[in-house]
Specification:
Dihydrodipicolinate Reductase, domain 2, about 40% helix, alpha/beta, seven-stranded parallel β-sheet, four-stranded mixed β-sheet, Rossmann fold
Length: about 425
């Protein structure tokens, strides 16, 4: 990055959401609109509330991030997106039952004006859902072209300066890495031939990159985490990041696991279970979709503890994750962790964690931060995988084989990247 390269935020920023009628999306949209009216506080958003240390000069010791980094203004954000159901965002938010009707009514007219575009949908990838508002296409290349036209029309209609795309859709069934994903030309051929290896999320991602639109993968789907897509993002000079928003139980793991490792305490096993009643829980009740989520959740522990270097402490750890669909809880997720540890001379101890969280309430500020930060990344001139945004993901994409899951190291990397951006000419210190 060279000094003076950074483009300041100007004009309107379009935010296209895949799964715009879902609980996370509607909570994100409604919350952002309520906050920019001054009727709510953006609790959980680092870009809006957190500070950053800039220098040892006491007068400039700390500043709020959004005061020293020219992020897009919340008033400049225009929302749009796709969904498999034909519903306006207000009705969808009411059905999600995350925010109260009283809060939703504060921005009712704005929410009612947002209606989804028809989605690319394939039953084999999300077996528990039935799409009724979906595109017709003869092959997946044609589907990609349709998404491109949607992006172009959205940008023109709303007189947008730039656009970002974020996947807030359901978890797709588990996909193994194959030869098709290794080379860009093979991936393109597979789209034209409509092979089963090309998922809907990949179609959205490819179309976005072709339009120079940064892409955020909020689910554990493979999507952009393949060589062909990473190569394409570099070729189009477009940033990508993912995968799987880090909200409840995994966030706790990335805090507790480093604590145990720093104290050199051993671990026998970590059993995690969840109950969840929203649409996400319904989709994850399918074994194929759960397999994708399970892989994302399981990756955290081994990476943090690194049993190769600490065999006496972590060589034979038993790690189990379960998610159970329980409709009465709706969006209010509850997780339990039973953690069996050992200390001096191998004597056993236990940790118990019961987290009664609200899935979409935790995810909404993550969506806001990622939208603003990946837009910043594009203006800075970054492309390819944005590993500095690992803080926000369960299974973060990285530029090398070393994946960092420690929440505090991830946060330091996030802050240091922002400092680097500042140093290269965003503000004069």
């Amino acid at each position: 990055m060279k000094r003076g390269q950074i483009k300041k935020s100007k004009g309107k920023l379009g935010v296209l959401i895949v799964g715009i009628c879902g609980a996370v999306s509607t909570t994100f949209i409604a919350g952002t609109m309520i906050i920019r009216k001054g009727l709510g506080v953006p609790v959980g958003s680092i870009t809006q509330l957190a500070t950053i240390q800039l220098s040892k000069d006491k007068k400039k010791w700390v500043s709020k991030i959004n005061e020293v980094i020219p992020l897009a203004d919340l008033n400049d954000i225009i929302f749009g997106g796709w969904d498999i159901v034909e519903d306006n965002v207000y009705s969808a938010a009411c059905n999600a039952e995350v925010l109260t009707i009283e809060d939703l009514n504060k921005v009712k007219n704005e929410l009612q004006s947002i209606k989804p575009m028809k989605a690319v949908f394939e039953q084999n990838f999300v077996k528990r859902l039935n799409g009724t508002w979906i595109k017709d296409f003869s092959n997946k290349w044609e589907a990609k072209e349709s998404i491109r036209r949607d992006i172009q029309n959205f940008k023109t209609k709303n007189d947008l300066d730039r656009v970002v795309c974020i996947w807030c859709g359901s978890t797709e069934v588990f996909s193994k890495k194959s030869d098709t994903y290794q080379k860009l030309h093979l991936f393109q051929m597979a789209m034209k031939e409509s092979t089963s290896e090309i998922s809907p999320s990949m179609i959205y991602a490819y179309a976005s990159l072709e339009e120079n639109v940064p892409y955020i993968n909020g689910a554990p789907n493979l999507t952009v985490d393949i060589p062909a897509m990473i190569d394409f993002s570099l070729k189009t000079k477009t940033p990508i990041c993912g995968k799987d928003f880090k909200t409840g139980q995994t966030m706790v793991k990335t805090i507790l696991a480093p604590m145990l490792k720093i104290r050199m305490l051993g671990l026998h096993g970590w059993f995690s279970t969840n109950i969840l009643g929203n649409n996400d829980g319904f989709v994850l009740d399918d074994p194929g979709s759960f397999k994708t989520k399970e892989e994302s959740k399981l990756s955290v522990i081994e990476s943090i503890f690194n049993p190769k270097f600490y065999p006496d402490l972590y060589k034979n750890v038993y790690h189990k994750v379960r998610i159970n669909y329980y409709p009465p809880r709706k969006d209010n997720k509850e997780s339990w962790d039973a953690i069996d540890i050992f200390g001096w001379l191998g004597y056993s101890m236990q940790l118990k964690v019961n987290f009664l969280c609200r899935d979409s309430i935790l995810a909404a500020p993550i969506c806001l931060d990622l939208v603003l930060l990946i837009d910043l990344a594009k203006r800075v001139g970054f492309s390819g995988v944005q590993s500095w945004l690992s803080f926000y993901f369960k299974s973060p994409m990285c530029n090398n084989d070393t994946v960092e899951h420690d929440l505090f190291i991830q946060y330091l990397k996030l802050k240091n990247t922002l400092r680097k951006i500042i140093k290269c000419g965003l503000v004069a210190l």
